[in-house]
Design brief:
The structure holds 2 protein chains of 2 kinds.
Chain A lengths: L3 E4 L2 E4 L5 E7 L5 E7 L6 E8 L2 E4 L6 E3 L9 E3 L8 E8 L9 E2 L3 E5 L1
Parallel strand pairs in A: 2-11
Antiparallel strand pairs in A: 1-3, 3-8, 4-5, 4-9, 5-6, 7-8, 9-10, 9-11
Chain B lengths: L2 E5 L2 E5 L4 E8 L3 E9 L4 E7 L6 E3 L2 E6 L4 E6 L8 E9 L3 E4 L3 E6 L1
Parallel strand pairs in B: 2-11
Antiparallel strand pairs in B: 1-3, 3-8, 4-5, 4-9, 6-7, 7-8, 9-10, 9-11
């Protein structure tokens, strides 16, 4: 089955802890993205990567970090510096570039800080 | 500042009704406009619009872009309870970035 998987589905974190959210795709897509979704707000871009070993900050990168060591994987670390991390996190991927490029989303991870 | 505004914020209709969802945008370096449906978790892709005035259609759903008015509409005819979802509008700017609206929450009652 081709698609995007995210794990875990639900994650609870104590204040002051770093946590890493997993995102894997087997669609052979070059580009991958991380978004955050809060109630009443649109999706906001955290980081994106157009190619392996390269990534750029999105609109709300503070308190987050990423890596792109493999084409299939784009993990997101939520650090203790992120002031309000409770949210729904969505990973997406796309072929990359071109006028018809479309982003496809994974099922998401809901992070709650206790 | 880039902005995508959707209206209404929420909507309740009866099965069989026709609905029109609106999306307006102020985004620099516009490339395309996308519609997604989000039922529980992952948004699923519906349409991508790049040219003004050309309607895209899929079953009971259709969408059109008006670049002069900087807006798009999504129409759903003969609504069903399975159409209940949040509908997201996003504008692609430049190479990769999508700017999302807050979404319209649609509830179709039987």
């Amino acid at each position: 089955d081709g698609g995007i998987t995210q794990s875990p589905k639900y994650l609870f974190r104590k204040e002051g802890q770093n946590v890493t959210l997993s995102c894997e795709q087997n669609l052979n897509h070059d580009a991958m993205y991380w978004y955050r979704q809060d109630p009443g707000q649109g999706l906001r871009l955290i980081y994106y990567s157009q190619i392996v070993n390269d990534f750029q900050k999105g609109d709300i990168a503070e308190g987050y970090s990423v890596s792109r060591e493999k084409k299939e994987s784009f993990p997101l670390t939520v650090t203790s510096a992120q002031k309000n991390p409770t949210a729904f996190y969505l990973c997406a991927s796309s072929i990359g570039g071109g006028p018809a490029d479309t982003q496809y989303f994974g099922p998401g991870t809901r992070l709650t800080v206790l | 500042e880039d902005k995508v505004v959707q209206s209404p914020l929420s909507l309740v209709v009866h099965e069989g009704d026709t609905v029109t969802l609106n999306c307006s945008y102020e985004v620099t370096n516009f490339r395309s406009l996308l519609w997604y449906k989000q039922e529980k978790k992952a948004p699923t892709f519906l349409f991508m619009l790049t040219s003004s005035g050309i309607e895209k259609k899929s079953g009971r759903l259709s969408s059109i872009l008006d670049k002069k008015e900087l807006s798009s509409i999504l129409n759903i005819t003969a609504t069903q309870t399975g159409d209940s979802a949040i509908y997201l509008c996003a504008v692609r700017k430049g190479f990769q970035k999508l700017v999302f609206g807050t979404g319209t929450r649609l509830l179709v009652s039987p």
